Amino acid sequence: MKPIKFPKATKKARREFDAWLWTRPAVIRRMAKRFDPFTPYRVKATGQVGFVVSWNEGGTMRLRISEWFQDNPKIAVSLTEFDLEVFGLRPKDLMPYEAAQVQP
């Protein structure tokens, strides 16, 4: 299985994201500015790491978990078998992922 692809923060990608973002409701804009799709985030409760792939007007987000960032070997092994997305996450559930090296 191929590893999950995550977005590259190129200038073009950021411009396109910003243009799209201005068409969204204010609640989405606020969340997406704080939790952009180019930065990895950790789920505080589980330690899983991934990228935000959607924002909901109810104030929640969906995170695509990437095996590249898992510190816990049990989580990393389980992710090699299927893609994983976690939904219903609130801003308080996430924190920036601080890694010495981010692998593509």
What does this structure look like?
It is a single chain. The chain has 104 residues and is of the alpha+beta class. 26% of the residues lie in helices and 23% in strands. It is built from three helices and five strands; from the N terminus they run ααβββαββ. It has helices spanning 11-21, 26-34, 73-79, and strands at residues 41-43, 49-55, 61-65, 84-89, 94-96. It has a five-stranded antiparallel sheet with strand order 4-3-2-1-5. It is globular and about 35 Å long. The two termini are 15 Å apart. The relative contact order is 0.21.
What oligomeric state is this? single chain
Distance between the amino and carboxyl termini: 15 Å
Order of helices and strands: HHEEEHEE
- The 3D shape can be described as globular
Percent in helix? 25-40%
Strand residues, percent: 15-25%
Number of helices: 3
Task: Please give the radius of gyration in angstroms.
Answer: 14 Å
Number of strands: 5
Which blocks of ≥5 consecutive residues have pLDDT under 50? 76-80, 100-104
Report on the biggest sheet: 5 strands, antiparallel
Key features?
104 residues; alpha+beta; 5 strands; disordered C terminus
Describe what is shown at a glance:
The chain is of the alpha+beta class and 104 residues long. It is built from 3 helices and 5 strands.
